[in-house]
Amino acid sequence: AVAMSETSDSAAPDEKRALLQVAMQKRAKRWAAARGGLVTLLTSLEEEWPHAFAVPAGQLGGAGVPRPWVPSGTTDREVVRAYKRASFFLHPDRLAAAGRDTSVVVEAEEVLKVLTEAHADRSGWLTDAARTGWK
The pTM is what? Predict the structure, then answer.
């Protein structure tokens, strides 16, 4: 009976993680579909995913302070630099090591997957950026 109890206790966090993954994956895919290319995704990160960016944004300061995960322009170099910085701040291992809640870690994993897909589609980096007026 003890062995069964230990198994069910250890399965509970895995079940919670699996449920969170399904929910966050759906939300991340909806976000990507609504926003478009990599540039608009990077620009909307903090607004759309405040839990994942609460700590780094707080360390940077208030509104008006440039965010390293927001491209300063639309050149390849600026977009890649912002993508790499976003990846750094969203890295699940980094968040877990910092003691962030499992829900934040799973959220970051799913957002990072979407950003990685958008980064791989170089021709679509600026999709919707012109339409939304981003410069």
Answer: 0.79
